[in-house]
């Protein structure tokens, strides 16, 4: 595929040339979006083709596909194929310390998210992009530099030599540690922040039992333990991928098999027979806990030449299940703006930044909030009461009161608008509960005063005598 690189810059036609940096989930999807519009598209991925690789490197946290992501897949015609390979999860299944399991539905009946494998999805997206005759895939190509003014890109190829190509538009989809974004950092008025949260993650595998799932498969299983938690998502091979999220200092305290078993016996006792003692020790000590980074930046574009999407623009922690969905929606939003602006990159790119930055920043903050909810709030009776109340009010007033999770996961309402509505709803409902509580107390006091006996049934002298008797018996 090395020759395709040279052909891309040498094509003599009027089609605009789009270079997508990164062949991951968002990059591969983006290639199909641009190819569908008739652009000449070339994807440049620094790693080898995962469809041929014996070992797939990179993150492996299971993905939760929801409405936004499905709409993007639908646009390129592969939604049904991907959905058929996912496992529906209708609710969270909360595992208490005593082993009691309590489901918390995600939404109304029939609403669910899908557990999908990252590697399999990436392979399907690459194959979908490659099916377009105006698309070329170039693997083992590392981006060294690019020019915002000319669109010239320099890659280090698989043969050890540097190659230059020319592009009308450069789309940076190369992840949280984006090489494309480095050029942005050299420019004035580009805001960027990178934050590592103090928690890491480590993956464990729960094998099948008697040829079937070890737990009910249509749930996202959660073991919330206030400062840390474990989750489990089902796979097609009837295993569960369990992910332990915990402060790094707690991971570092566990150095031996005995310490590990004591920790799990104390915090996740019901999971031990499901994972297996040997498997638990093998998976836990195989790799160190991995870090999670939160990236925010603005603007997402440089001139009319380059735009960032996916984790390159807004890497977020995985606790709302929206990282991939937000990245996929980036492609969809960009495509919609392309229609509005007649594919004029000079108008499309700044408009994309204007529209998308507040949404992605709002979602990144929500993802951190949801970590606290998942590991701690789900244990609260008030949280469960509010979930029930919100769902009831949504049933009564479906267009006025909409649970936050429903807006984020089952609609395409803009993220920042969903947050604004959520805060308004919280204020209204909280004030309503306060008024209801106040009226109830005042009403109870009125009834007590209205209907209580006019005369006490016991005199003061009799009351004093009883107190003396109790005091005597105590001594």
3D structure, described in words:
By secondary structure, the protein is α/β, with parallel strands linked by helices. It is built from 17 helices and 19 strands. The protein has helices spanning 2-10, 25-36, 67-75, 79-83, 118-130, 181-185, 248-253, 257-267, 272-275, 277-286, 311-314, 323-340, 345-375, 381-396, 404-410, 415-451, 460-474; strands at residues 17-21, 40-44, 63-65, 87-89, 91-95, 101-105, 113-116, 135-138, 142-146, 152-156, 162-166, 169-172, 191-206, 219-224, 229-234, 240-247, 290-298, 301-302, 306-308. The strands form four sheets. It has a seven-stranded mixed beta sheet with strand order 6-5-14-15-16-13-17. It has a six-stranded mixed beta sheet with strand order 8-2-1-12-19-18, with helices on both faces. Strands 3-7-4 form a three-stranded antiparallel beta sheet. Strand 9 (142-146) and strand 10 form a beta hairpin. The radius of gyration is 28 Å and the shape is globular. The termini are far apart.
What does the average pLDDT come to?
89
Helix content: 40-55%
* CA-based gyration radius: 28 Å
Report the count of strand segments.
19
Distance N terminus to C terminus? 95 Å
User: Which band does the percent of strand residues land in?
Assistant: 15-25%
Quaternary structure of the protein: single chain
CA-based shape: globular
Main sheet makeup: 7 strands, mixed
Structural class: alpha/beta
Q: What strand order characterises the main sheet?
A: 6-5-14-15-16-13-17
Q: Unreliable segments (pLDDT under 50, ≥5 consecutive)?
A: 1-7
Q: Figure out the total of helices.
A: 17
